[in-house]
Specification:
By secondary structure, the protein is α+β, with helices and mostly antiparallel strands. It is built from 3 helices and 4 strands, in the order αααββββ. It is globular and about 45 Å long. The termini are far apart. About 25% of the residues are buried. Belongs to the UPF0225 family.
C-alpha cells in the first residue's frame, strides 16, 4: 500500500485533499453515491488498496484476489474523468469513466468503462463493468 500526504489533492482529482475525499471511505465510511464509490475505487487502485477494492466489490462478482502488488510493469495512474453518473433507481446506478494510465515507460493508455453499482444495506458496491472501445 502506498502512502499519501493527506493535504495533497486526492488521487481521484478532488482538490479538497485525500483526507476530505477518499480517505474516509478507505477507512470504512459508506459512499453516498455510486460516483463517490467509483472515485474512491480509482484512488484505491492508485494507492494499491486491494483490501478496499475487494471490500467494495459486490460478493456475487468479486474475484478472490487482484494481485495488484504483482503487476509488472505496475501502472502509473494519470487521472480520472467521470463522464456520466446515471441513477437508475435508489439502489442501482451506472458510472461512465475514463481512467488514464501508463505501463512502464510506454505511452499513456485509457480504460473507458461503464460500471454498474448496486446498493445493499445502505452501502454501494461495484458490480461489474463494460469496457468501451
Amino acid at each position: 500500500m502506498k502512502s499519501i500526504d493527506t493535504m495533497t489533492p486526492c488521487p481521484c482529482g478532488n482538490d479538497a485533499g485525500y483526507a476530505a475525499c477518499c480517505g474516509p471511505l478507505h477507512d470504512g465510511k459508506p459512499a453516498e453515491s455510486a460516483e463517490q464509490l467509483m472515485r474512491s475505487r480509482y484512488s484505491a487502485y492508485v494507492l494499491l488498496r486491494e483490501d478496499y477494492l475487494l471490500a467494495s466489490w459486490h460478493a456475487d462478482t468479486r474475484p478472490a484476489s487482484l494481485r495488484l502488488a504483482a503487476q509488472q510493469p505496475a501502472p502509473t495512474w494519470l487521472g480520472l474523468d467521470i463522464r456520466q453518473h446515471h441513477v437508475i433507481d435508489s439502489d442501482h446506478a451506472t458510472v461512465e469513466f475514463v481512467a488514464r494510465y501508463r505501463l512502464g515507460g510506454g505511452r499513456a493508455q485509457r480504460q473507458h468503462e461503464t460500471s454498474r453499482f448496486v446498493r445493499e444495506n445502505d452501502r454501494w458496491f461495484y458490480r461489474d463493468g463494460e469496457i468501451k472501445a
